[in-house]
């Protein structure tokens, strides 16, 4: 079992004290306070996709693409690429690589007339529209607390067992599409939802993430939507921050009697671990991140700084709240995630072996487990569903 790197969470009183220090520093015009506020705002501001990957060459005769090398571009499996000019391209196997570049097979045709911009964004989505699945799909609007939000509904022909898919931070519904064929084959009707501040659903009043502390209300509305259409059991499937949202829904939803289980891919189980790890990668001192968390945790300070209603980090720590969980959970996480460390997933599995089944990957990167090993990912979900008596 991988040992958790989680440090003890600051107490509520300590967080308030730290927040007061932030205000004091801000009143002095401290550069540190400015940096703290910047980090805090980055945490809750909806992410925007950036074209940060350079395309070095496209061979239109061979239908290959050469990208600058990074941890993603040399991964085995199938992926996607958001481009300027050619739209969304599907990428196949790595054909060659060296220290500076990686050449992959193009699974989307790029013709001679298409001009592609120099920079692109690498993606694990693979499918970017529901039509690519060749399954019947409808497009209902879900009445969320923030307003009507678009969804995709894949009816498997049975009204009893549903899956509600919840995408991650900076993503959209398309992130969930990889899972739909597996769920459909298992006889599960799948509702792929949008939620506040994701760019598809209406925004929240502040236009800022709650990291799961507010978004669960939208999942609650989606469960009610499913219940009204005959669902008797609901599985919540969350990716990354969507995992944090699903876990909060399992504890808070007015319809949690319908929740029969959770499937979580690369989930955020404890935000402190995630933010500490990101700070280390960005070489931001841990004290800056911890104080930014304190700033966000204080409702008064957060509101005064224009950062929303505050983030209750203690309530979002699901390792600390493991005893409150009551439904079976399948955790799919890579020890080489690179963005959301798997430590907290391992800790949750150790805390609740009666409920949690953990499928640990290596090599695969964040939310790209399906892409790396589709067969294993699919088998893990299929076997878990059968063990829980869900679906066909």
From TrEMBL:
Residues covered by the Serine aminopeptidase S33 domain: 162-285
**What's the domain of life for this entry?**
Bacteria
Taxonomy of origin reads:
Bacteria, Bacillati, Actinomycetota, Actinomycetes, Micrococcales
Pfam families, from UniProt?
Answer: Hydrolase_4
Swiss-Prot/TrEMBL keywords: Hydrolase, Signal
Signal sequence span is 1-25
Q: Which Gene3D superfamilies would you find in this protein's record? A: alpha/beta hydrolase
**Native species of this protein?**
Microbacterium paludicola
Q: Tell me the protein's name.
A: Alpha/beta fold hydrolase
Q: Which Gene Ontology MF annotations are present?
A: hydrolase activity
